[in-house]
């Protein structure tokens, strides 16, 4: 397949997914899912599995199913992954993920942000945190809030590939490391 044909497939897939995401109002969740997929694709074992799936449809379906099970994405992204496997387009998957993130974030002029808290935040707190992040970043953000009770208290914020960990669990970890190094 020529590079021009490959680029056309990547662009077409991204534009269709972008249009459907916007029209159905799930673009922030789809962006979040693709951001997580982008991070998953950095794992060498997963990259190797993707490289091996270039010819076998059953392996493509298996890999798409693994993404769905690990990621637990929005229904639209799950259907998109299934479509990619059926059409044998997983060979283009990394490029589609990168291109979708770039096009969507540039088009929407905002930054996708994941905020992980120990408990569910009330709406006023969510709005305040969103406003503070927008001021700190100097751009509009679309937050996706998730809960991880293992944090104990506090929160983590993921902005692109950066993670800010202000959780109590992280503070305890640093305290433990400091105490181990002090030879009490």
Write a short abstract of this structure.
This protein is of the alpha+beta class and 184 residues long.
Q: How are the secondary structure elements laid out?
A:
Blueprint: H1 3-24, H2 27-40, H3 44-52, H4 57-71, H5 75-86, H6 93-108, E1 110-117, H7 123-137, E2 140-147, E3 155-159, E4 162-165, H8 168-182
Parallel strand pairs: 1-2
Antiparallel strand pairs: 1-3, 3-4
Helix pairs in contact: 1-6, 2-6, 4-5
**Judging from the principal axes of the Cα atoms, what is the shape?**
globular
- Give the helix level as a range of percent: 55-70%
Which CATH class of the largest domain?
Mainly Alpha
Low-confidence stretches: none
Q: Helix/strand/pairing class, anyone?
A: alpha+beta
Number of strands: 4
Structural overview:
With 184 residues, this protein is an alpha+beta fold. The chain has 2 domains: 3-107, Peroxidase, domain 1; 110-182, Glutaredoxin, CATH 3.40.30. Helices cover 64% and strands 14% of the residues. It has 8 helices and 4 strands. Strands 2-1-3-4 form a 4-stranded mixed β-sheet, sandwiched between helices. Helix 7 (123-137) links the parallel strand 1 and strand 2 (140-147). The radius of gyration is 19 Å and the shape is globular. The termini are far apart. The mean pLDDT is 78.
